[in-house]
Amino acid sequence: MELIRSLSLPAIGTKLTAEEAMSLAISEAYQGAARVSPNPLVGAVVLDAQGGFLSAGHHEFYGGPHAEVNALKNLSPEQLKGAHAFVTLEPCAHEGKTPSCAKMMAKLPLKKVTFGLIDPNPLVAGQGAEILRQARIEAEVFSSANPVLDAKIKTELEEVCEAFLWNFRKKKVFVSLKMASSLDGQVALRSGESQWITGPESREYVHYIRACHDGILVGKGTIDFDNPSLNIRHPQITKKNKVIVVDGEAELLPNFTKLKLSEVHASEDVIWCVAEELREKVEKLRGTLVKSPDVVYVKTRVGGDLDLEDLLAQLYQKGLRSVMVEGGAFTASSFVSYHLVNRLYMFQAPIIMGSGGSRSWTESVRISAMTDKIQLKNPRYLTFGNDFMITGTL
Amino acid sequence: MELIRSLSLPAIGTKLTAEEAMSLAISEAYQGAARVSPNPLVGAVVLDAQGGFLSAGHHEFYGGPHAEVNALKNLSPEQLKGAHAFVTLEPCAHEGKTPSCAKMMAKLPLKKVTFGLIDPNPLVAGQGAEILRQARIEAEVFSSANPVLDAKIKTELEEVCEAFLWNFRKKKVFVSLKMASSLDGQVALRSGESQWITGPESREYVHYIRACHDGILVGKGTIDFDNPSLNIRHPQITKKNKVIVVDGEAELLPNFTKLKLSEVHASEDVIWCVAEELREKVEKLRGTLVKSPDVVYVKTRVGGDLDLEDLLAQLYQKGLRSVMVEGGAFTASSFVSYHLVNRLYMFQAPIIMGSGGSRSWTESVRISAMTDKIQLKNPRYLTFGNDFMITGTL
Ligand SMILES: NC(=O)c1ccc[n+]([C@@H]2O[C@H](COP(=O)([O-])OP(=O)(O)OC[C@H]3O[C@@H](n4cnc5c(N)ncnc54)[C@H](OP(=O)(O)O)[C@@H]3O)[C@@H](O)[C@H]2O)c1
Ligand SMILES: NC(=O)c1ccc[n+]([C@@H]2O[C@H](COP(=O)([O-])OP(=O)(O)OC[C@H]3O[C@@H](n4cnc5c(N)ncnc54)[C@H](OP(=O)(O)O)[C@@H]3O)[C@@H](O)[C@H]2O)c1
Fold this sequence. Notes:
By secondary structure, chain A is α/β, with parallel strands linked by helices. Chain A has 13 helices and 18 strands. In chain A, the strands form three sheets. Chain A has a nine-stranded mixed sheet, sandwiched between helices. In chain A, strands 2-1-3-4-5 form a five-stranded mixed sheet, sandwiched between helices.
């Protein structure tokens, strides 16, 4: 994820190469972050017949106009004559909530449309491009002469809409894990104390990442120790989110109304995950509560832990498309052990907590040979004040 | 420490501000890295009467000419008329291995000398500046109108000669700790396997850091598991180093000749650290060995571990001024627990090893409240291939 930032667009007429135009379209796409789910982030850039910058646009919010429409809407037929549009994703062929972008573009005097990714839906993949070609507009997937550059841009193109692609391809929730640790990988003292490991700059960014997900998931321990609000507090974002609590034995449920969670969120936005075996007992309990969260009953594994795959499948059924796991130690390491994390956001503070008296976020992860190490792919580093953050896919 | 790099100097005549000149002098100083110990790294920059860049120089090797001499040597009296010299450290007042720099400069038609740090020796501090003033050359400690900038430059000025300052102020060895860990802070599997955590770019830089220290220290376990060479293998550096092995019970000493260490290093460059109590036994053993390293006998603590402070004091007596601790887990965490580390070099690879089956570099470090966390000061981040490195002082 990129930082929210006021993207500075080039001056009108500035010549851009194809790579520059596509990179700019990617940055444009991120401007819609936190507002388009479950749609993908999409960005578009238009160059004039001479390769000079004309305009840019992005998909701004769920249900709103697509990126292409926003990029093209203020341009005159004169300006569009011989123009070249760059879009991060293949223009859609079919009407959905909005009219077909390919058909809209086919009516314009464009010379060429270059798109980043082919539509991930095999049933319509290539159809947007075909509509354009029938209107005698060149339409092709981005590629430069340089395979290294192409691979880099491909990775960025996939990343910008990674949750959408994952949802589409796997019909599963996209899971991010965010952890704040010391330099030696510790996330809490044995006593439960963990505030604050990272500084205010990191914590503000965490609220941005929260906003990029439909829900925030934590284990019972974190609620118990920290009594957190788990809402989105960011100067530039107003958004409601779901909160998911993993509490296999429903231990904290009777006290739900006393938790900060229940003050801050509407009850239906809080989802309590409890063992299937406890359904009857818990339903009875809910009848006695003044206020009760939504509850999902989850299959258990040998040993009694909730089956996190089943848990995620149920969240998907409820319409959640992306979830950020925010801890604590036990919950984070369970998601890592079961290989359920798509993207890691690891914040590290320049401190040492000592592993002798504290807990790591991989306490239940065990490998027996270096060849089995879990690799973070496409790692990127950002600094926030004195902290740094590494993100990548697992 | 900065990367070894071919420093690109500005074109002659380029106007530099005082901050830019001092920053350039700092970068110049680093060009002597790995060659000046036990002297400090020092850099100098000369601007002409109009503030245009004239030349730069650094202390290149132990016993060689000082930075000021190298910066000034090729300039004509014409060029030097009204010139302004910037030096990271106060020009020396006294003759040592080389003539007094202050006296040399006093003979030149300079207008002003700005230096970064006052000579740390209170007996001669300010005397270099005084010699210059008597020759009607302005001489002052660097300071700008901006206190934030001044603090930053002061930190960099101290850092560039940190080992020297520590040696001088405390009469102690400067200790760096280098560790290579996974993102979750693990440095080796329980089985002992740890190769390779980080990639080749990181490992090459480690050889540079090795070269910036007089000795490399490891625990017995690392010798046992890895049988390492512990020499300096860097494309741009040829340097011999000392190796220090902490082996309280002299367990590996009988096999010394079979170790890679003993092939690669002259025996007198390897220092074995053994419990004082074993002196007699070990001296007898040494008599029977074809080849024996140097041995220091170290006081023990309750429990039998060597007293690392005594160990470092003995290394100081032997003339070592900086040591890099390179592991393993036990040794590293002992140095951290006893607060004996001056600078940390923490390389992290974008991998997860899982703390469930591996070892951390702070296994014996334990804090009981977040207020006791160990803070890394002035942290800086560098990336090496897919890894990153954080360095700072403890
Ligand atoms: N540094 C950070 O980023 C960060 C973030 C969040 C929290 N924390 C800290 O982490 C600590 C809490 O960690 P923690 O490990 O004790 O608690 P936790 O992970 O928040 O919660 C663990 C508990 O959640 C329940 N749970 C989790 N996964 C489950 C599953 N698959 N099936 C059934 N139940 C499941 C279990 O409850 P039962 O045992 O009742 O079954 C388990 O004991 C606190 O100190 C908190 O401050 C740190
Ligand atoms: N990732 C990295 O950066 C890195 C670097 C180096 C090594 N490693 C890995 O780390 C592992 C080795 O770690 P380790 O903890 O087993 O071994 P270690 O720290 O290299 O050596 C530990 C042993 O050294 C002796 N020792 C250390 N400090 C002592 C003291 N103060 N007094 C007396 N003896 C002292 C002790 O021997 P006695 O028990 O006989 O008294 C102790 O057991 C290996 O797997 C290696 O591959 C990783």
